[in-house]
């Protein structure tokens, strides 16, 4: 299927060492029209700066068991233990997700990284891309981070969201977009504001950002450092639950199999489970080939989880208009329905795309056959 993807390791904590790359599948015939495209890969980085990913995992697991720390005691990664991660502001909990007025919460993440990157570059030496007045620019945004949700904005410009996870959607316009780990968002940008502009990817729940720079042809000078959140981030936010599929020809979905899938766990023990089981100590979920499956995903935790299914696309939100995706970000205490047809035999992983949740149990094998 054509679109924006990325390939990456699934072994241990290798993802947090940068073992990934963008994978762009060109369609036979491009249906979008634009003048140039740029792929932006977002990441969070600690390896070699604040210990290793293994140190970070030990600290997360240790923090819940031993308030005296690990003996290291030097890693500044976990935000102040007096403010429990996940206990930050959870706004909009009273409103139905996806309804007008609902906006996703911004939760303090498990890990605050020393660096946030775009295309491997830090804010001190940002990746720069060119634009030209009058052109339409396509940005392919890929969140390859291990533990960071980003809020992305291009200062001085609006974003027109046209694809998610490689699939066409009904276009949506806004000032900023939210992208969870594993998700891909394609936006079109009308280049009508010459100058040198920051593209920020703010690490959700932190005071830090990743940065890239859009430079119009003929525009000189450099950016001043980003010290506060650009106004765009407080503007209209595009997020997963607002997205509707462009392909609305499908009939209503009648599931053959409906399964509640309970996401549990917490920062204390730092064990994350699906239906109470922590992979690898977990049973496979058996599905017959050809079955139409509905997962009722219930996040019973105070952290968001970008849940990712291998080998299939699913429709989000129990509606023929629901977006076709392979990853869905589920906020604290939220319930999201996903519908999919088990048409790809074999063993497939279903897991949280937060690497440290996956590594401490939030994964199951789905056996189709
Ligand atoms: Cu998770």
From TrEMBL:
Organism of provenance: Thermomicrobium roseum
Pfam families cross-referenced by the UniProt entry: Cu-oxidase, Cu-oxidase_2
This protein's record includes keyword Iron: no
Record keyword Metal-binding present: yes
Top-rank taxon: Bacteria
Listed PROSITE patterns: MULTICOPPER_OXIDASE1, MULTICOPPER_OXIDASE2
The name this protein goes by in its record: Multicopper oxidase family protein
GO MF annotation list: copper ion binding; oxidoreductase activity
């Amino acid at each position: 299927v054509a679109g924006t993807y990325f390939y990456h390791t699934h072994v241990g904590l290798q993802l947090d060492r940068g073992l990934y790359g963008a994978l762009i599948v060109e369609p036979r015939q491009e249906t979008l029209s634009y003048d140039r495209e740029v792929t932006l890969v977002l990441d969070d980085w600690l390896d070699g700066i604040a210990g290793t990913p293994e140190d970070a995992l030990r600290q997360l697991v240790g923090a819940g068991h031993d308030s005296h720390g690990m003996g290291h005691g030097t890693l500044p990664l976990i935000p102040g233990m007096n403010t429990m991660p996940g206990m930050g502001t959870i706004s909009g909990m009273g409103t139905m997700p996806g309804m007008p007025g609902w906006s996703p919460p911004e939760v303090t993440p498990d890990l605050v990284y020393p660096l946030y990157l775009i295309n491997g570059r830090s804010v001190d030496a940002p990746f720069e891309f060119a634009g030209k007045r009058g052109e339409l620019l396509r940005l392919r945004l890929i969140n390859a981070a291990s533990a960071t949700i980003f809020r992305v904005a291009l200062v001085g410009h609006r974003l027109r969201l046209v694809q998610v996870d490689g699939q066409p959607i009904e276009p949506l316009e806004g000032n900023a977009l939210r992208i969870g780990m594993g998700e891909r968002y394609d936006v079109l940008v009308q280049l009508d504001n010459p100058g040198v502009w920051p593209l920020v990817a703010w690490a959700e729940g932190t005071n830090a950002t990743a940065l890239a720079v859009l430079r119009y042809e003929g525009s000189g000078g450099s950016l001043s450092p980003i010290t506060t959140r650009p106004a765009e981030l407080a503007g209209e936010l595009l997020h997963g639950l607002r997205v509707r599929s462009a392909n609305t020809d499908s009939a209503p979905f009648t599931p053959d199999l409906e399964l509640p899938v309970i996401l549990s766990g917490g920062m204390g023990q730092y064990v994350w489970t699906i239906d109470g089981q922590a992979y690898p100590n977990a049973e496979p979920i058996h599905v017959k080939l050809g079955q139409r499956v509905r997962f009722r995903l219930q996040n019973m935790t105070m952290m968001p989880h970008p849940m990712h299914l291998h080998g299939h696309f699913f429709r989000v939100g129990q509606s023929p208009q629901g977006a076709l995706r392979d990853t869905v970000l589920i906020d604290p205490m939220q319930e999201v329905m996903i519908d999919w047809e088990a048409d790809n035999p074999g063993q497939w992983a279903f897991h949280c795309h937060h690497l440290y949740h996956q590594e401490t149990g939030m994964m199951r094998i789905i056996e189709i056959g």
